Amino acid sequence: MAPVGSFKPNPWKLYDMLGNVWEWCLDAYKPYHKKSVTDPYVKKGKERVDRGGGWDSLPMNGRASTRGAATPGFSCVNLGFRLVKEID
User: Average pLDDT in the 45-69 region?
Assistant: First the structure.
């Protein structure tokens, strides 16, 4: 475990994006399209996407491209969310 801000931020100036907790995302979970799609936001669906791996995940899951699915109301010790404020 490392203190918050121990590593350099990503290109969007966000710190500690991977490996702490799986992060809930706004997108509903659906299988990916067979063809390439940029930022495929999905509004309808029972499950929500979670990304990034948690503190107890395998190292290969500590990537933003790793995603899972969970139903809202589901709770566990390695699932959270991140608040981000856009700066003008």
Answer: 87
